[in-house]
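Friendly challenge for the regulars: who can give me the structure tokens for this chain first? No prize, just bragging rights.
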Amino acid sequence: MTQKPLGFEDALWKAADKLRGWMDASDYKHVVLGLIFLKYISDAFEERRAALADELAAEGITGDDALPLLESRDEYTAEGVFWVAESARWTTLRAKAKQPDIGRRIDAAMDAIEAENPSLRGVLPKTYAKASLDPRVLGELVDLISGIGLGTADHREKDVLGRVYEYFLGRFAASEGKSGGEFYTPRSVVKVLVEMVEPYSGRVYDPCCGSGGMFVQADRFVREHGGNRNKISVYGQEMNDNTWRLAKMNLAIRGIEADLGPRWGDTFHGDLHPDLKADFVLANPPFNVSDWGGEQLRDDPRWKYGVPPAGNANFAWLQHMVSKLSPRGVTGVVLANGSLSSQQSGEGEIRRRLIEADLVECIVAMPGQLFYTTAIPVSLWVTVQGLSLAVPCSV
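First reply, four minutes later:
Bragging rights claimed.
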């Protein structure tokens, strides 16, 4: 089902785009998305605080007597709400938005939130006090974001924050051009892939997870089909440190618990989930990567169907994913169309062995012009370990 526009996305983008004159798109992406995240968790905190005050008032506890409980961290974390110290709350920051030290205050707020919430440590951006960021423009952005109730119950139900975040990820990817594909796969592609694989329950893994779009869509698929989101477990890895942080925030604002490893890392040379056997692998690996260090991995046990060429990682990615499958696991992966016919450096032999092993359930050809990184057409490969899909590749 297609979601209707929220109505304020373009206005928010235009305001955020004011930062373009002060820093590169790859930098101001983190500034804007960090502020949206901060606004969301602050809204959710304030809503929980108001509900708690009502509960206490019903018990006759008000005023100074209620304050210790209203400021009790456990009263929030027990409800799945991030604890936000007073200095980090949006109302506090907005009151100081016109001050020349607003950047320093926001950085301090991010530090305070990380200190109180272990799952966010090392994740939030803390670059708001940079000399290159005009405090006047930053203050204007704070005022604009203040007008959107990102954390209210009604907006959480409609996934407003998640949709704003997703909208911004897409716009940033478009504005950054080729480099934008490092953190974002177009939603249309992700949606088709997830609906082919149907991850209703089990372990879901993405070895090159970018900003977490595969996980978001898998969670959405489960909810839209009446499933229980707690029946899927999410595992991922991302080698770019800033993109890893984006993914952590993207999943946190949607309440998706995920193991993305304690840090970012190279999947080929430092697998953070060495013992994982996944029921579903969903991924859009970078196309035709030539500098993946394959010459150092010639004897790797993952290459069960043939050693992938050192000059192209396509079949290294595919074999890595197959090696991660549980006995009845399924992969859905985006590959460049060259993988369908290439005979160079043994790729044709690897492809033949995968097919003869009855792993390739189907391949769906997609049109060109879908990605910001390239105009070339791509294919969606579905591989199955063990039994075939009950309804092969129904889309």
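The chain has two domains: 9-177, 183-384. Residues 388-392 have pLDDT under 50 and may be disordered. Your move, everyone else.
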